[in-house]
Amino acid sequence: MMLKSNLYNLRGKTAWLIGGKRIGQIAAEVLAQHGANLILSYRNSKKEAETTQKSVQKFGAKTLLIRADVTSKENAENAVKQVKTKFKEINIVISMASIFEPVKLGSIREEDLKKNFDTHVKGTFWPVQASLGLMPPGSHIITVSDRAAIGRMYAGYLPYIVAKGAVAYLTKALAVELAPRGIFVNSIAPGPVLKAENMGKEYWEKIRKSSIIKYPITDDEAVEEFAKLVLYLSTVRSTGSIYPLDFGNL
């Protein structure tokens, strides 16, 4: 059997990228390079979203920029109403909105748990639910969990880890719920990809050097690997899997 010459042809497909800041910009560019049109939604990072929009338009992608706090069901539904004015379908939903804030166990407040659950769990679920009416069979949903969801635990981020664990199980539950509709749902469980904005440079370099694979990887290369996995999961016909991306940081 001969493989198709272009395995990643997304021409005519529309991808909704939620939280396209930093790593999301490269993911958007890779999707655009392979023919996808982009819906780019953001909550606060308007300037970054506009930069991403300009960068993908260079590849000929049609774009729609939407300001939406998708932790709200109503806001997610309103965002989809805006999508309908420009696109007939949503073929790919990629949920990347995230916060990553350290907190000591004894200092955790109710606000910390709520903020993480709202951002990661509600911010993943409501856009998916709102999009279903526009998602034909063969569509893809990509969530972002964390390496802790597959057992690679670490200290200092308990609210974040708990919420990301919920995202992993949400992914598996959605895969079962949406299987009869022919919609594929998978998750990326990354380890360290790009330095968090509130993380010191020396600590970040220590994390990079902790890899058991003695093959140096730069931040730019790590982001590219993430984007390539997004591209793969935008086309793969399997569902309910959690894909690690950890660069040897076991």
Secondary structure layout plus pairing:
Elements (H helix, E strand, L loop, with lengths): L13 E5 L4 H11 L3 E6 L3 H12 L5 E5 L5 H12 L7 E4 L14 H22 L8 E5 L13 H21 L5 E7 L10 H9 L9 H15 L8 E4 L5
Parallel strand pairs: 1-2, 1-4, 2-3, 4-5, 5-6, 6-7
Helix pairs in contact: 1-2, 1-7, 3-4, 4-5
Describe this structure in words.
- The structure is a single chain.
- This protein is of the alpha/beta class.
- The chain has one domain: Rossmann fold (3-Layer(aba) Sandwich).
- The protein is built from 7 helices and 7 strands, in the order βαβαβαβαβαβααβ.
- It has helices spanning 23-33, 46-57, 73-84, 110-131, 158-178, 201-209, 219-233; strands at 14-18, 37-42, 63-67, 92-95, 140-144, 184-190, 242-245.
- A 7-stranded parallel beta sheet has the order 3-2-1-4-5-6-7, sandwiched between helices.
- Helix 1 (23-33) runs parallel beside helix 2, helix 3 packs parallel to helix 4 (110-131) and helix 4 packs parallel to helix 5.
- The chain is globular, with a radius of gyration of 18 Å.
- The N and C termini lie far apart (37 Å).
- The model has no long low-confidence stretch (mean pLDDT 91).
Question: Quick one: CATH superfamily?
Answer: NAD(P)-binding Rossmann-like Domain
Shape: globular
Annotated CATH architecture: 3-Layer(aba) Sandwich
Strand order of the largest sheet: 3-2-1-4-5-6-7
Provide a short characterization of the protein structure.
This protein is of the alpha/beta class. It has helices spanning 23-33, 46-57, 73-84, 110-131, 158-178, 201-209, 219-233, and strands at 14-18, 37-42, 63-67, 92-95, 140-144, 184-190, 242-245. The chain has a 7-stranded parallel beta sheet with strand order 3-2-1-4-5-6-7, sandwiched between helices.
